[in-house]
Structures are given as C-alpha cells and as structure tokens.
Amino acid sequence: MCSSVPGGDPLDDLAAALAERNRLDARLARSVRAAENEQAAQRDGLASMTSWLRGHCRVSAAEAARLVRNGRALEHLPALAEAHDAGLVTAEQVAVAARAVTPERLVAAAEQGVDLVRIDAVFTGVAVEQPHADLVQVVQRYVDDLEPDGPEPDPTEGRALTLSKHADGSLSFRGHLDAVGGERLQAALEPFVQAGRPAGDERTRAQRLGDGLVQLADYALATGGLPVLRSRKPQVAVVVALTDLVDPATGENVGRMGFGATISAARARWLACDGAISRVVFGPDGAPLDLGREQRLVDRYVRRAAELRDGCCVFAGCGAPTHWCDVHHVIHWLDGGETSLENSALLCERHHTQVHHGFRVERQPTGTWRTYRPDGSEVIVPPALAPAA
Question: Is the distance from CB of 56 to CB of 382 less than 8 angstroms?
C-alpha cells in the first residue's frame, strides 16, 4: 500500500498514480499485441491471446478482450499510443477509440480515402484535453460518417448476449438484439407473461418478464427439441451427496450444478420432485466407482464419470465446461488403451485436437492434471500473484 510523501498534496499523488497506471496499461496492451503478432498463445495450446489471458492470468473475458482490442488499436493510432505511453490517456479512452479502427472500418476508411493520421490527431487531442464523454461522441460521429447508410442488414452482427455468474450462483445478463430478433423474443415471452396471472398478482413487469424467460427455458428443455450436446439432450443437472439430499436441513451450497453454480440441498430436493435421480458411488480418491444402471453403454458410463470427476476441460489454462468436451483416451485404444475412467480425460474440442497433434495430458496420483507441449516442456498456469512488498 503506497502512502503520500509527508507534506505532499494527496491530489497530486493521486494524479501521479493514475498517470502511472495509464503508462502501465499502455505497456500491457503493447505486450499483448506483440504476443498476438507472434501467435505466442498457440505455444501453450490456446487459440488466442484472449483465451490465454483468461486461463493463465485469471482476467475476465471482457478485460481480456479489451486488452487485445487496445493493443491492436495502438498500432493504427500512433499519436494516441504515444499519449497513452506518456500517461495522458486512459485505457478506457483507447477502448473507445478502438471502435473506429476495427478491420471492417479500416477497410471502409481506405475505400473512402480517409486520412487516418488526421483522425488519430483529432482523437488524441480530444482524449487529452476534453471530458471522456466528448471522446465518445467524436468517435461515434466518425463511425456514423464512415457508414452513412448504417451497417449492412445482417442481423447477427448486432446481436450479443453476455452472461455473468455471481458468487451465489445467480446470473446477470446484458445484451442487444436487432429489431427482428427483439420482436421474436418479445413474442415468445409475452404469452408466459400474460398467462395464468392470478388475482392479486403484485409482480412488477420486470419480475414477470424474468419469470417468463425461465418458463421459456423450461418449455424448450421439456419439449426435447433443442440441439443435442455431446450425444446427450440438454438438461439441468445437480450433483449432491446422498446424506445432504435426505437430510431435512437446508444444507446451504452443497449441490453443484452443471454450469458451476451451487445450490442448497433443499433446492436440490425441489428439483428432484420431477427429475430423474441417479446413484453415483465415489472412491476415497474422489473418482466415481459406480454409476448405477441408468445407462448400459460403456461410452456413456465413462463420459458421465469423467464429467463428475474432472468438471471441465483438463488442459492447462482452459476450463471449458463439460458440454464443450469430448472424452479422450489418454492412451489411444489403437495402442492398447482401455475405454475406462482411468484412461479418460475430459478435453474441449480444440484441446482434444491439440493432444492428438503433439500435446499431452497426464493425471497425477493426487488427481490433478498436468499438460505438456510437444517438446516435452510443461504448460504452467502461474499461481496467484503475490501482493507487492
């Protein structure tokens, strides 16, 4: 924890600290871009610097994407980059300007003969001398002038949905839909919002829409018309110990759901009222020993056991959810490897391919997984950063 110099002005100290952070952000963005240009993430078996930053540096998906975009933008806006290096411009301002130099807009600017040097100078002047909101307006005006007729009528380009899971397992989301996509969603939700409203229903419109969205998901899951994931129909799953399930106590945070949320045993009992219950017996090392008789085929037995044991892709720095994963034979069956839990590893599609092209995963006696590059060196995810002395 830094402290002010005795007798110094704390506001001066704060301004100096913010400038230093700006300089460090500029260095980070340039480093990310250099690594991206060298395709460095592929050395660790990952597809992009965004995925490497998420898996190896534990930054959020949004922050990883911002670092990558800022690094690219600094290459096209050298004056802004110089101001960022000097601590005069924030990473947030660079992120705003980055909207103007996406690959599509760079092509449009070149076709229209736009002088990008002049645009760079304007952006930099506004960023250094004027409020943040002014830069947002200037960049938006440039983008609008660059595309006077608006974007091409491809609705998928404007659609986005971001899901954010909180510590208690609840989910927040934000997104954007084009006019037609938004109409479809509203048309699907409104019947649930309006149907079965009893007298005295005091729910707000927002609450009814939230309930309607959950009911829409329930309907889609129940009808069985959703695409199949890894040979299995999508389903809501929860893993809970038998002792917790039968105990009448609430049992907070003892049930683990398929997407990582935890729920109480009471909530699990509620879900079990109209769901299928499967027995799974674990050994002392935490590996499943017996999955009952729900499935007869050995491939499903092994997959379900691997999902329960591994929980996600085991490749270092990945952690993709189980529904993205294949069950990989650690020792290939052509080489005598058995189709068994002991010889299985859960790997997402990308890393399953990587392992068949030189990378290797190995489970330790402790139950942890280690990943090795084709040259035999290990892919290491660094431990949590220690606090500065």
Answer: yes
Q: What's the CA gap between 346 and 352, in Å, rounded? A: 8
pTM reported for the whole predicted model: 0.68
Backbone angles phi, psi at 112, to 5 degrees: -95, 5
> What string of H, E and C letters represents the secondary structure of the chain?
CCCCCCCCCHHHHHHHHHHHHHHHHHHHHHHHHHHHHCCHHHHHCCCCHHHHHHHHHCCCHHHHHHHHHHHHHHHHCHHHHHHHHCCCCCHHHHHHHHHHHCHHHHHHHHHCCCCHHHHHHHHHHHHHHCCHHHHHHHHHHHHHHHCCCCCCCCHHHHCEEEEEECCCCCEEEEEECCHHHHHHHHHHHHHHHHCCCCCCCCCCHHHHHHHHHHHHHHHHHHHCCCCCECCECCCCCEECCHHHHHCCCCCCCCEEECCCCEECHHHHHHHHCCCCCCCCEECCCCCEEECCCCCCCHHHHHHHHHHHHHCECCCCCCCCEHHHEEEEECCCHHHCCCCCCCCEEEEEHHHHHHHCCCCEEEECCCCCEEEECCCCCEECCCCCCCCCC
Tell which wins on pLDDT, 163 or 231.
Answer: 163
Q: Tell how far CA 254 is from the center of its chain.
A: 24
pLDDT of residue 163: 83
Do 305 and 291 meet the contact criterion of CB atoms below 8 Å apart?
A: yes
% of the chain beyond a pLDDT of 70: 84
CA–CA gap between residue 131 and residue 113 (Å, rounded): 29
Whole-number Å distance between alpha carbons of 227 and 230: 10
Q: Strand pairing of 288-290 and 160-165?
A: unpaired
**Most trustworthy range by pLDDT among 59-63, 115-119, 231-235:** 115-119
Residue range 304-320: mean pLDDT, rounded:
88
Does pLDDT of 22 surpass 70?
Answer: yes
Taking the C-alpha atoms of residue 33 and residue 66, their distance in angstroms, rounded to an integer, is 11
d(CA 353, CA 330): 13
- The tokens describing 192, both together, are 């649930």
Which range has the worst mean pLDDT, 15-24, 66-75, 86-95, 284-293? 284-293
Question: 327 with 306: CB under 8 angstroms?
Answer: yes
Q: In angstroms, rounded to a whole number, what is the distance separating the alpha carbons of residues 120 and 89? A: 13
